[in-house]
Every structure is written in structure tokens, then in C-alpha cells.
Amino acid sequence: MTNREQAVIDSGAPALRGIAGRPADGRRPGAPPVEDREQVGERAARGSLRAQITRLEREQSAIVAETFPHIAAPRPAGPAPSGPCLPSLEELERSRDRLAGRVQELRGLASDRAEHERRARQQLERMKLEPGRYKFVRLPVSDLGQGGCGVWEVRPRLGLIGMLAGWWQVKLSSGCPLPRGRRPRRGPFPQT
Amino acid sequence: MSASRPPAPGAGQPPTHSEPVAGWCAREVEEELPGLRLLSSDVEVARSGSLTGTAPPDIKARLRELSSRFRGARAVGLRREPVPAAYRVFFRHIGLDPDVVRTPIEDAVLERMLRGGFLSGGLLDDVLLIALLDTAVPVWALDAESLDGPLGIRPSRDGERLGRSPQAAPLPAGRLVVADASSALAILFGELGAEHRPASRSRRLALFSVQVPGVPTLYVEEAMWSCRLALGRP
Q: How many CB atoms are located within 10 Å of the residue A182 CB?
């Protein structure tokens, strides 16, 4: 068969479809056309990407909320979004990949932070067990993952006497400074 | 754009009741974003005075009360609450990054943190803000007299403008917009067309809200009810 004859057969194929009762692409009667199936498949793929984006967004929000203020919300890199639209498969993939990258980065930071807090807790335990070995060591409560401005510190009991006698203790400072600032030192009344 | 669902018969006539009604959605939007719904409701403003002028004392008092309810810890944890989280996720689904373009509730709370309180922006703005803070569901208002039929969501067409005025800003094709039968009136979660914004003396408003997957209908209805109640009170 020549190429020309084959072309004539191909061009007549749609007309034959009605006669034979079977589509030219070989699919069974009643099955959706190839384009429809492609569209449905692509829509399903976009749905799957949206589900992944949902999961990643929830994870990112959880990390940011749980580790605040030690880990800041990530600053998005790349071009700013233009406006609300129906993103294509490629755009959704890019969005998913960017978000996955950010979540991965946050997971790393959260893991480092958890390790830092674990080491700080161990340090505090050691300070409490043997305060004499950690003279004047200070450990902010923020390092333990707690809020506030308190600081654990190894200090001598009774000041100089404790220093000379080797009486050391771990004390927690009273907390955040007042918004008014430091209390003025005692002294003569200001001349008015 | 493929064919949008045509507006229902009777387009252009005011609704006979003020209960929230579901708007239409273009077919491709419905297929791509199942669960997205627009609810709208007409309201007659019974308050005297200008919509953009000073808010009455009861509204201001409510804003002050809400200012003391939203503090830093709540602002940080907000993104994990179900309704704000649903809007964050939906923003990503429509190509917006909620860390760049903030969701309405996060934007309002951030402003609260920066300014030290929810500052009054006029009667209408305050009423919409109170509804947002109470439910985390955003509500917008349009001048009902300027509308042509029921509201819905569709992608913008090529060469379309935001509003009916020839001077209105042109929209890129495919932008998701809130539209009536004849033109785009607002960008979804974005700015409103200038000539459709309520004027200071507008007496009939079309309130609309956008419900996304994960947001219970009750919350959306409560947000709109709160606005209707505040504006409908003489």
C-alpha cells in the first residue's frame, strides 16, 4: 500500500466509525474519547498535587506555630504571586516543590532546635547535680524551649563566704525586666 | 474561557429575601475547585449617617473589645486554627502564597499587632472587620444598585476590565473574579472595582463571602448575619 492510499484511508476513518460502530482509535463503544481521558487524568493529577500542597501547608504551619519565636516563618523566595487563578499542572508542581523545599528547611531547623534544647536540659541537670563544677554558668530558659526572660545561674551561697567555702547553688532569676526600666539607684534626692 | 454557567432567570432583579443565597460558579472553576462557594445577601442599611464616616460607639466598643482578645500568641497560633488554615490552603490552591499575599484574617491580625489595636476605618469597614474577627470568614460589600444579576465566580476573559467603566483597570485573562451577569466586579480575595464599592450614602448593599473547603457553612452564614444585623440596626 502506498502512502497516498494510506492517507485516503485515514481521512475516511471518521466516516467509517458510524458504519462499523467502533471508533477509529480502537477504543470500545461507550468509552470516553482520548482527549477527555487525558483531561480527566490531568485533573486528577492536579487534584493529587493540591492534596500534597494541603499536607505540606499544614505541616509548615504546625512547625512555625510550635517553634515560634525560635524559628521564624520562612521568607518566600522567587517572584511574587500575580493573582488568583486556576494553576496549570506545571504551576502546581512548581508550587508544591517550593513548599516542599521550605518545609524540608523548616524540619531541619526544628530538628536543630530540638537538639539544642535537649543539650540545654542535660546541661541544667548537670548544673543541679554538681553546681561546683559550673561556677557562674548561665543558662537562659529560652534555651530550654520555655518562654520568658529567666536565666538559670550557678551562684555562691552567701556571696563571698560561699565562694570561699565552695557552697554553690543553681538559682533562677526573677524574670523579664519591667517596662519602666531599671530602678534608679539610691542617692540624694534630685535638686529641683 | 469555556462557557460559564449562565446567570439564573430573573437576573437583575433584587432578591425577595435577605437570607444568604449561593452564587453561581463557572464550570471549570467548579470542576477544578470543588467546595468553593460564593454566598451573597442583600442588606438595607438602617443606620443613619455615612457608611465611610465615623463608626457609632457600639461598633467602636466592639472593636476595642476584640483588640484585647487578639494578642501575640493568638496571632502566631492562628494559622493552625481550622478556618484560617482552610483559607491558607485554598490560597495555595489558587496560586497565591499566603506568606506573601496574606489571608484576610491574618492580614487583619497582623495590622492589629503593628498598630496596637483594631483602628476604626468607618462604619462599613468596621462591621466587615468585626465579622471577620468573629468568624475568620471574610465578607465584602458592593453597592447593590450597581449590580446586574446574581454574583458568581469565574475566570476573567481576555481584555476584560475590573468593573464596567472604560477607565477601569484591565485584567489579565484567567484571573479568578467575582462577577455579575455582565462584568467582573472584584478580584477573588482582592480589590473591588471602583464604581461598585459602596459610596458613603449607599443604602442597599450586596454582601458576599467566599466559602472554601474546610469552612463550615455555619461560619459563613454567621459572618454575613453579623454584618446584616450591625448594618440593619437603626
A: 7
Sorted by where each starts, the structural domains of chain B and their CATH numbers stand as 36-232 (3.50.40)
Neighbouring C-alpha atoms within 13 Å toward the C-beta of A149: 6
Residue pLDDT, tens place only, A3-18: 444 443 344 344 334 4
Q: Is A171 helix (H, G, I), strand (E, B) or coil?
A: strand
3-state secondary structure of B155: strand
Question: Rg of chain B over CA atoms, in angstroms?
Answer: 17
DSSP state for residue A159 in the 8-state scheme:
T
In 3D, which of B187, B189, B185 has the Cα closest to residue B206? B185
Q: Are B174 and A64 an interchain contact pair (Cβ–Cβ within 8 Å)?
A: no
Contact A99 B92 (CB under 8 A): yes
CA distance B147 to B196: 8
In the A/B pair of chains, how many CB contacts fall below 8 A? 85
pTM higher than the cut 0.90:
no
Please judge whether B85 and A61 are an interchain contact, meaning their C-beta atoms are less than 8 angstroms apart: yes
